[in-house]
Amino acid sequence: MNFETILKLFLALLLGGIIGLERKKKKKEAGFQTYSLVCLGSCLFTILGFSFLETTKETFDILRIIQAVAIGMGFIGAGSIVFYQDKIKGLTTAAGLWATSGIGIAIGAGFYFLGIFSTFLILLILAGFSLIEKRMFEEK
């Protein structure tokens, strides 16, 4: 394992953790640990896919790794969505986890700026858009 691999894993952990802290601050069930694990795991699978591609002479489609992560996150996301008392809960959590897995994939593939910028955009949506919604649609 080289320094760049360690950097990728640590950066994925950090970026997922930042999003998780925002969710934990809002007292959501999926928080720091969950988002960190999702981002780190997605990064790890991507690194493994590229490593396999480099170390074998077999034909290997790296897009299968991305597809598998996206499908796996769909299952996790589906488990976090609940319909309770005429309200849907967990939809934003599911979408946030899915988007966070994309950050892990980006970092694992070496697209650092894309991963960092996407983290900023996700935080803008989760924190900034929430404030806009409260002001525009607050019940009076």
Verbal overview:
The chain is mainly alpha-helical. The protein has one domain (3-137). The protein has five helices and two strands, in the order αααββαα. It has helices at residues 3-25, 32-55, 63-80, 91-108, 112-137, and strands spanning 82-84, 87-89. The chain has a two-stranded antiparallel sheet. The longest helix is centred in the C-terminal third of the chain and has 26 residues, at 112-137. The mean pLDDT is 91.
Shape annotation:
elongated
Q: DSSP helix count?
A: 5
Question: Whole-number average pLDDT?
Answer: 91
Strand content: under 5%
Distance between the termini: 57 Å
Q: Structural class given helices, strands, pairing? A: mainly alpha
Number of strands: 2
Q: Please give the largest β-sheet.
A: 2 strands, antiparallel
Q: Strand order, biggest sheet?
A: 1-2
Succession of helices and strands = HHHEEHH
The percentage helix is over 70%
Q: What count of domains describes the coordinates?
A: 1
- Radius of gyration using CA atoms only: 17 Å
As residue ranges, the low-confidence spans are: none
Describe the structure concisely:
This protein has 140 residues and is mainly α.
